[in-house]
């Protein structure tokens, strides 16, 4: 069983889209795909319960029968980092042992587990631990989604540096076009990243596009 963490340079960079695309394509390739969104913030109330929209999208993409409560154990109303949202909302804080137990259950039924983070890798799940700590605890390989816009070079390079400093296995990054019109920065960011880092560019996803067959094969190790 392999497990990947889909993290981003920031929030709103397309992590869910990339994670769902990968989960669906892996399922189409015949793999048993598990998914997990350890903590989702900014949840709306539905039938007196907090509804994790991203986690539900992952579940649908993987077409898994695994319960949503296992896929997303922690849900918060406030659109903030999980550690902050737990305090603001007065809800249970993230428990790493509970996350490990949920992950192990999902992994026992899966060939591949796609774990989506919240925001970036340095975002605090608890006041003591971030998504790098979670990656180490669960042996996750890191895939960085880079929002292809002005300012992404700094965010991407710092994220890659932090992940490597923490000793995480970094598979590479996906450059994701998120702006309706390609700016000069978006046109040049890909080449700039190739010159500035030796991290692998797994794929370039164009506006409203999907991972390429080559990108999926790279992520699946095929």
Give me some keywords for this one.
single chain; 222 residues; Rossmann fold; 9 helices
Short description, anyone?
The chain has helices at 15-28, 53-62, 68-71, 82-89, 96-107, 131-138, 152-165, 184-196, 213-220; strands spanning 2-8, 33-36, 39-40, 44-46, 49-51, 74-75, 112-120, 141-147, 170-176, 201-205.
Q: Can you walk through the features of this model?
A:
- 41% of the residues lie in helices and 22% in strands.
- The chain has 222 residues and is α/β, with parallel strands linked by helices.
- α7 packs parallel to α8.
- It contains 9 helices and 10 strands.
- It has one domain (2-220): Rossmann fold.
What layout of secondary structure does this protein have?
Blueprint: E1 2-8, H1 15-28, E2 33-36, E3 39-40, E4 44-46, E5 49-51, H2 53-62, H3 68-71, E6 74-75, H4 82-89, H5 96-107, E7 112-120, H6 131-138, E8 141-147, H7 152-165, E9 170-176, H8 184-196, E10 201-205, H9 213-220
Parallel strand pairs: 1-7, 1-8, 2-7, 3-6, 8-9, 9-10
Antiparallel strand pairs: 4-5
Helix pairs in contact: 1-2, 7-8
Distance between the termini: 14 Å
**CATH-scheme architecture:** 3-Layer(aba) Sandwich
The structural class is alpha/beta
Q: Got a strand count? A: 10
Q: Percent of residues in helical segments?
A: 40-55%
Chain-averaged pLDDT: 96
CATH topology: the name is Rossmann fold
Strand content range: 15-25%
The CATH superfamily is identified as P-loop containing nucleotide triphosphate hydrolases
Number of domains: 1
Computed CA radius of gyration, to the nearest angstrom: 17 Å
Tally of helical segments: 9
Q: What is the string of SSEs from the N terminus onward?
A: EHEEEEHHEHHEHEHEHEH
Uncertain regions spanning at least 5 consecutive residues: none
State the name of the first-level CATH class.
Alpha Beta
Strands in their spatial order, largest beta sheet: 2-7-1-8-9-10
Largest sheet: 6 strands, parallel
């Amino acid at each position: 069983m392999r497990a990947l963490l889909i993290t981003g340079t920031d929030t709103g960079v397309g992590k869910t889209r990339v994670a769902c695309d990968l989960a669906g394509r892996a399922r189409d390739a015949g793999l048993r795909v598990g998914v997990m969104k350890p903590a989702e913030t900014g949840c709306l109330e539905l039938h007196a319960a907090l509804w994790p929209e991203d986690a539900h999208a992952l579940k649908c993409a993987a077409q898994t029968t695994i319960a949503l409560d296992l896929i997303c154990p922690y849900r918060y109303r406030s659109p903030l980092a999980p550690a902050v949202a737990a305090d603001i909302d007065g809800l249970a804080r993230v428990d790493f042992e509970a996350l490990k137990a949920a992950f192990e259950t999902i992994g026992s039924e899966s060939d591949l587990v796609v774990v989506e983070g919240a925001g970036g890798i340095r975002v605090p799940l608890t006041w003591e631990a971030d998504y790098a700590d979670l990656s180490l605890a669960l042996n996750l390989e890191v895939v960085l989604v880079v929002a292809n816009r002005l300012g992404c070079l700094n965010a991407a390079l710092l994220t890659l540096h932090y992940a490597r400093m923490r000793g995480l296995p970094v598979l590479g990054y996906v450059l994701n076009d998120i702006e309706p019109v390609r700016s000069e920065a978006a046109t040049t960011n890909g080449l700039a990243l190739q010159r500035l880092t030796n991290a692998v560019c797994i794929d370039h996803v164009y506006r409203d596009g999907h991972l390429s067959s080559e990108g999926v094969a790279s992520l699946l190790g095929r």
